[in-house]
Design brief:
heterodimer, A: about 350 residues, mainly alpha, ABC transporter involved in vitamin B12 uptake, BtuC, 15 helices, about 0% strand, disordered N terminus, B: about 325 residues, alpha/beta, Rossmann fold, six-stranded mixed β-sheet, 12 strands, about 40% helix, elongated
């Protein structure tokens, strides 16, 4: 059964790792031209990412939202919906969770945390309702609708934290801090690594089960690979697309909720440094598989955390790390383009 | 090689531990707050012969505590933080590193090893208000009508912004009690289009000078002044040159002076841990720009009155209302 639908695995690990290696080489050239020794820089990046438990915790902490946004993107991709609106869900979900976290201040943690996480989950899901329905029922291009919804989400939340939800006395656009009971418990204090990471890992495991062991997961994959074939086989593709868009939005909203309750402790303007967009690269580079998403998220998380801290020890500016990150994304997408072209010729 | 040697010197050799400057979200190259602070950082390091590094990250808000802890673990002696959202994380981190010194700007955080830096923006804004109120009725100046109406646009309704606005209104009323100051908020710090529309609306209502305290949105205010032949007042950095002749003056906030001073104090062993540094007109940290493009348009009598107001603040005769410390005055409720 699985042999029929599994993508040809001749390439396997090589093509998954190749984008990263190519990116390292390309960015290494940029580094050398800029007068830095690429090997020194890469060694420093590795040390700042994985050198010791504190640094590993920082990397996992930075990877947590990316696991979730990568997963959110992959879930939609699997159903054939190119959802680029996860970023907006992060904003909406983050604000919803923060609102619960600073409003229901008398609830105990075991009630408040699930409630706040659920608020993010539901808010993110609802945010994807319209593009999901438009895509499924009217065949409206989801890339356009979800991309536009990102701008609306960012502006809408910015309006709310500039006005109705602004913390009294704050000079920047932010909600009040959530109460301590709403903060996600930390795994390795004082690191910000928190149970959000475990939630993300659990969802990855569920995703593996769902995609490999359930009928819905199988149908989704069929619908994503060839919608006409899926319809002909009796699968209700529109309903599937709506479900997966809602699930994608929910996971994106959860990413925002975990970011708000775990890391930031509130919602601020400029809440997400592009987690939703990096999530697209994570999903592509990870080839939509649970292990791949995890590794890709760790990679981008490591670049984010070490990219900041290597500046303490070297003259490498943040732009170089951004270039490296951009290179990985480009090569990840280039691979995807190849698959896309192949699928199109096959269809 | 350079990398390895840098690691070596940062770790041990220096008698004084190095300094880290955490850049705020808008990043270096913003031609404003961060760049200005970085200038002061470089000057401070040069004067004290200390080592130091700026840290930039687009995830600076998300990774607040991790970055602060890393700098502290890496044996930096002084961590100067430009990111406003780092107030709470700094409180938590500073407790764990009693030997590291921290500096936070534009807010007050309690802690024996934390120094807070506040600017007396109301003092500079008072002078801007005085100047605007005197100019707005002088029809000999191009683009000025007889109406005693001026405006101010804040980025958001908050105490931090209203501190500027209250000072501006107070200065204007002191110069001419009949001045009508129109106050509005853009609820946005990054959209010039909003600033343009709001400023144009004010100009249509008879205002001829509009003070902006709205970051990137304020660029639209300056644009509106240029398009309609009226005047804007800039903020934070010397914005007079953005539209020469259309920016009456700028209320400059010398973040660079603050950062430089903090580094020098640290090197001299007089770091103000647990204290709040208040930098105002007297310290040369706030004030009006030199008005390179507009000085010749304005009658000397007006400039003299502004100078008199400045002397009044310096001597303590004029005490400008501080919204953050004193709450809201009656004229701004």
């Amino acid at each position: 059964m699985s042999a029929v639908v599994a993508p040809p695995s001749t390439s396997g690990w090589a093509t998954a790792v190749l984008p990263f290696v190519l990116a390292l080489v390309a960015a290494g050239i940029v580094l050398a031209v800029a007068g830095h020794n690429p090997f020194d820089v890469y060694r420093l990046l590795a040390v700042e990412s994985f050198g010791g438990t504190k640094r590993i915790a920082a990397t996992l902490s930075a990877a947590t939202p990316l696991i979730l946004t990568g997963l959110a993107t992959a879930v939609a991709f699997r159903a054939g919906a190119f959802n680029v609106g996860v970023e907006g869900c992060v904003y909406i979900g983050g604000l919803a969770a923060a609102y619960v976290g600073f409003t229901f201040v008398d609830l105990p943690a075991p009630v408040l945390i699930p409630l706040a996480l659920a608020a993010g989950f539901v808010a993110g899901s609802l945010w994807m309702l319209v593009p999901g329905v438009l895509k499924a029922r009217l065949d409206v291009d989801e890339v356009v609708t979800t991309l536009m919804l990102n701008f609306i989400a960012i502006s809408f939340t910015a309006y709310l934290v500039n006005g109705p939800l602004l913390a009294p006395g704050s000079a920047n656009s932010a909600t009040p801090m959530v109460v301590d009971a709403a903060r996600l418990p930390r795994l390795m204090p004082p690191s910000t690594l928190n149970i959000g990471f475990l939630i993300a890992m659990a969802l990855l495991a569920l995703y593996w089960l769902w995609s490999n062991r359930t009928a819905l997961g199988f149908e989704t994959r069929i619908a994503g690979m060839n919608a006409r074939f899926a319809s002909a086989s009796g699968i209700n593709v529109p309903s599937l697309v709506i479900k997966m868009m809602l699930l994608s939005g929910a996971i994106g909203g959860l990413a925002g909720a975990i970011h708000a309750l775990g890391s930031v402790g509130r919602f601020v303007a400029g809440f997400s440094p592009g987690y939703g967009f990096t999530g697209i690269a994570v999903a592509l580079l990870g080839r939509g598989t649970p292990v791949g998403i995890f590794l890709a998220a760790i990679l981008f998380g490591a670049l984010a955390t070490s990219g900041a801290t290597i500046q303490l020890f070297s003259d490498v500016p943040i732009e170089i790390v951004n270039i490296l990150q951009g290179m990985v994304m480009i090569f990840a997408v280039a691979r995807f383009g190849w698959i896309f072209a192949r699928r199109r010729t096959a269809a | 090689m350079a990398l390895a040697s840098a690691l070596g010197t940062l770790g041990a050799a220096a008698a004084e531990k190095p300094v880290a400057l955490i850049i705020s979200q808008s990043g270096l190259g913003d031609q404003s707050y961060n760049d200005l602070a970085y200038e002061g950082f470089k000057r401070g390091l040069e004067a004290t012969k200390l080592e130091g590094r700026p840290v930039e990250s687009k995830e600076v808000v998300a990774q607040a505590a991790e970055i602060l802890r890393r700098a502290s673990d890496a044996d930096f002696g002084l961590v100067i933080d430009l990111e406003y959202a780092h107030g709470e994380p700094m409180l938590a981190v500073a407790k764990d590193y009693p030997d590291t010194k921290y500096v936070i700007l534009n807010q007050v955080r309690e802690g024996a090893n934390i120094a807070s830096v506040l600017f007396q923006e109301q003092e500079g804004s008072y002078l801007a208000g005085t100047l605007a109120a005197l100019v707005t009725t002088d029809t000999s100046i191009k683009g000025i009508n007889a109406e005693p109406i001026i405006g101010v646009i804040g980025g958001t309704k908050s105490a931090g912004i209203d501190k500027f606005i209250a000072g501006f209104v107070e200065g204007a009323k002191a110069a001419n009690p009949t001045t009508d100051v129109k106050v509005a908020y853009s609820n946005n710090f990054a959209d010039p289009a909003i600033g343009l529309q709001m400023a144009k609306a004010m100009f249509e209502q008879g205002a001829d000078i509009v003070y902006q305290i709205a970051g990137g949105t304020g660029m639209g205010v300056i644009q509106a002044a240029k398009e309609s032949g009226h005047y804007a007042i800039g903020v934070d950095t010397d914005q007079d040159g953005i539209a020469p002749g259309s920016v009456l003056t700028s209320m400059i906030k010398r973040t660079d002076v603050a950062v430089e001073t903090v580094i020098k104090d640290y090197a001299a062993g007089t770091f103000a841990g647990g204290k709040t540094m208040s930098l105002g007109l007297k310290e040369g940290a706030v004030g009006l720009s030199e008005m390179k493009h507009t000085k010749d348009l304005i009658p000397a009598a007006i400039l003299e009155k502004v100078e008199a107001a400045k002397q009044g603040i310096l001597s303590g005769q004029i005490k400008v209302w501080n919204v953050v410390e004193q709450g809201y005055p009656d004229y701004l409720k």
